[in-house]
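Students often ask why we bother encoding 3D structure as a string. The short answer is that it lets us treat folding as translation between two languages. Here is a chain of 196 residues written in the first language.
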Amino acid sequence: MFDREQNLIKKCVNGNLKAFDELIEKYEKTAYNIALRMLKNPEDAMDVSQEAFIKVFKSIKTFNFESAFSTWLYRIVTNTCLDFLRKKSTIVYSLDNPIQTEDGEMERDIPDGSHSPEELLEKKLTKELVNNAIGKLEENHRVVIILRDIQGFSYEEISNILDCSIGTVKSRINRARNNLKDIVMKEMELNKEYIV
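And here it is in the second language, the structure alphabet:
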């Protein structure tokens, strides 16, 4: 598998688009999901992940095989998202907002028959609370929470994606989780008066 990937990368260096399509096929979904979590908009996530793939193709000659190709690719996706956010000064949207399509709005709710309506409401409110709290984190904290707690990357992978030490990653995650907890606690305290 690894030899096959190396072979595809070498073909891409020579401009082989078919080899590039084959190379990135298994990474497209994860790259899109990273972009979606960071940008909170499906269209932006699609555009930015495509832009990242173009960057990957243009700069694949600089890939030096010192890290896994996936790590290098996800670093480019993450950096492209961060550039996009900086350029756009993006307003943070909740994942619970409807998706805008050509035919109108479409809800994102995922039906779950195993829960009562009360449980579903509580789950939805908790999800909304956590998503809003993640959106209030500083950018570098938001990124590590998304990569670690939502996408499930290892400390080492995050270290490679963000080009920083594992110690820095662990420290950022610890501070990010503490900040996230503080934000959630404050939000819950503020919302107490609305709960009957």
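Translate back mentally: The mean pLDDT is 85. Keep this in mind for the problem set.
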